[in-house]
Design brief:
Blueprint: H1 2-14, H2 18-41, H3 48-71, H4 75-80, H5 82-95, H6 107-115, H7 118-127, H8 129-133, H9 135-159, H10 169-180, H11 192-218, E1 222-224, E2 234-236
Antiparallel strand pairs: 1-2
């Protein structure tokens, strides 16, 4: 019986069936809802209702976490992964009554990892032509947005209550964006040495991710068509031969009038 359950879980998390893909879309939707909940509740008082919803999110995240441990081939390696550690912090944050969901924003790290999995990317390319033709732009934009969200959440979690300039998530987001773009209006600053280190990380890594997004936006458009001879996957939209090995490739196009 236990073996059957593990087989079912492994098929859902790693399989290629329609049921597995639907399950992963549900998990992705749940992750996004969790992140939006953390943002929304930063503007409200955390009363009994919010704490109850926190507990529900925590239980579902714990169940997902337990399932992924069960199907892991190397559990020690899995437990030491940064994504796993972020999940553990998120679970504690949602379930601990005194912690609230202050560090629940780290769930977005799991979402980023999930979006980068081969199975989900393959399904997104198959289900959404717009994603298929603009995958690199989507991935670069998601990387930047997740970085902004994580740093904003970190600013909020470490500064709220001790820094009068950070009273909600919007204040933390405003600081993160001004620091990332090096605008630096100076109306909001982080206190303490740790706050200054957060500012440095935002400026260095944020600018790098922003430049990566600009690179994929303005470089010549490529299409993803894997060459059957050499395996090169990106080609010019009007290519008829692989630029690496010269083999004929067949890129589907709609043509122009």
């Amino acid at each position: 019986m236990r073996k059957d359950r593990l087989t079912t879980l492994r098929e859902l998390y790693e399989g290629d069936s329609d049921r597995a893909h639907r399950f992963r879309y549900v998990v992705l939707t749940f992750d996004i809802v969790t992140v939006l909940f953390v943002i929304a509740t930063s503007f409200t008082h955390h009363g009994p209702v919010v704490e109850a919803i926190d507990a529900v999110f925590g239980v579902f995240i714990l169940a997902d976490f337990a399932a992924r441990i069960a199907i892991s081939q190397n559990r020690l390696r899995f437990l030491l992964m940064p994504v796993t550690l972020a999940d553990i912090v998120s679970i504690i944050s949602f379930l601990a009554p005194l912690a609230g969901e202050g560090l629940g924003f780290l769930r977005v790290v799991r979402t980023l990892r999930f979006l980068h999995t081969y199975q989900l990317l393959k399904r997104l390319r198959a289900d959404f032509p717009f994603f298929r033709h603009n995958q690199d732009v989507f991935i670069a934009a998601i990387n930047l947005m997740v970085f902004i969200f994580v740093m904003t959440g970190l600013v909020y979690a470490t500064q709220y209550g001790s820094n009068p300039q950070i009273s909600n998530y919007a204040d933390a987001l405003y600081f993160t964006v001004t620091a990332l773009t090096t605008t630096g209006f100076g109306d909001i600053t982080l206190t303490g040495s740790f706050g200054r280190m957060i500012s440095v990380v935002v400026m260095i890594f944020g600018v790098t991710l922003f430049l990566r997004l600009a690179q994929v936006l303005f470089r010549p458009n490529k299409v993803r068509e894997t060459c059957r001879t050499c395996g090169l996957s990106l080609h010019d939209a009007d290519a008829v031969h692989c630029k690496h090995c010269g083999a004929v490739i067949h890129i589907e196009t709609e043509g122009q009038n």
